[in-house]
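S1.2 Input.
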Amino acid sequence: MKFEILTSKTSNQFHFISNLAEWHFSCRRRDNKVWLEKTGELTKEENSALKKFTKIIRKYSFGEKYLAIPFIRTEENLIWERVKKWVSSQEYSNIQEIFKVFDKRFNIVWEEEKSGLKLWEGLISDKFIKDSLFKKMFMEVKYFLRAKQLPDLLEIYPLLGSGGGGANLGKGAITIECSRLSPDRLNGTLAVIIHEIFHLIAYSSPFYVKNLEKSIPIIKISKTHIFYKLGYSSKNIINEAIINTLAPMGFISAKYVYKFSKNENIKVLDERMASIKDNMKQFERPDMLWVYFAAKELFPVIEKYFKNKKRINKDYFDKVIDLFKQFNLQYSVDSK
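S1.3 Output.
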């Protein structure tokens, strides 16, 4: 598996506007807060533009027609040509106008944070291209997830922001928000990147996809559940928990990135859970309590799977479902 680290100004402007629109629970409000503190409150014109943008991107949401794909996975000089073929002529005109509305604000942020992106391009490249240990890690995870093959080429797109990633750009590509991260956050950032790559590997496994789909009807969340309010689906609940048992705070990240023992990893998970659970309803991403909980409780289980060269099976999916039921009993999940 080869890696390419790619970024462009236009793709980052798309990400900047998309994040400001807060159209999905995965948008990072903490980044918006920093950007608005630097550039001033949103104007009436900008708020109107964000409403227009939200309407468009919800039409072209996650999936094969996700609007981020032509903006991020296209060479800079070809982006607008590809976007024009992606959306209607009216939507294309609206998107161009929205970009113009945010040009001044974005350029302020871009000039300040683009050097951070350049720094992280080098840091990520050094680790993924030169570290043979990571190649071994991907082969182990491929085997566990029953994937047929790893991507021949993996594109990593660094974006503006302070942490978090995505695997919504189709096969062989992920994003990582890192422009404001200090180099001493290297391990944490690498762990997030491999988490997103594991999502891609999982979706290349027919067994994984089939059993994930079968598990969806079993998970029930009420309309008063915090995750329902966030827009978290049953599929999200199962999928994120399983991948988080691997990374960024699961068995594989402990073994290959942090070099943690089981006890060290569980201690860190306990600390992170403690920072959320007493203030769950006000926390920006209360769903993180669930994935940390799953990573902690399933650590001994997945450790045995890898030690015994055992592949993911239906029993593992069942364990995650049962664990979510325990989670609902143990923590307050009602948003009323």
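S1.4 Remarks. The mean pLDDT is 92.
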